[in-house]
Amino acid sequence: KMLTKVFLILCSCLALVATAGLPTKPNSLGIIGGKTTNIKKHPYQVTVMSDCSGVILNKRWILSLASCVEASTYHIQDYSIRAGANTHTKGGKLYQLEEAIVHSMYNITTRVYDFCLLKTKEPIKFNKKTKSIQYSKNPLKTGARAIVSGWGQHGDGNETFAFREIALYGYDFVTCKQRYSGNVRDSMICAISKNSKEGPCLWDWGDPLVAKNKLYGMYAGWLFQCPSAEYPSVFNDVSAVAEWIQKTTGIH
Q: Membrane-crossing residues (predicted)?
């Protein structure tokens, strides 16, 4: 696991070099602002290798980011996901992984199509803290309200890594692309909070963006700025890979 983390850090550094024109990220390690929440409100969310978030699609399949597992796909059986926990390092139940399928169009430099499907060795047991969620086949509309949840710090800078949630609103894609000098790709969507200063940040990779009980996006924190009036949050667009999910897992 240590080698995996070293690899991810190196990849992150390379990505920052590749996007040198982007603004520097503030020193934040998770969701900024919002409020404390409970896994019972987000029972579909899991942690992947203690570093990223994933989402339960059914009792065997998890959707996460390719960038979270790219260093370990050849030894995926050594890794696990944690379901039903309010913290990302303890509690709930661990499930060993059997298989990892990275999207064929994933690009390590641009992070386009940054998705990975993870298959557990045993079926996930559903309960009040562990359930699946449907994925959307359409992108989040501009102005539509959605909730992002994850383990991160409060706006006062305390790195509590409590489980938090915050409301975001769909942001115009063309404007978002212009804000980031074209680095936002067609497989991504953007969202912003009401005060433009709250939302996911570093180490929130894969945090789910959910509206009306459907998964719309997963936070793409590698290349992009933490939330501000100039820079909305960028998510990987789940609808862009809906057909791939269906063909790979059989889940409609």
A: none
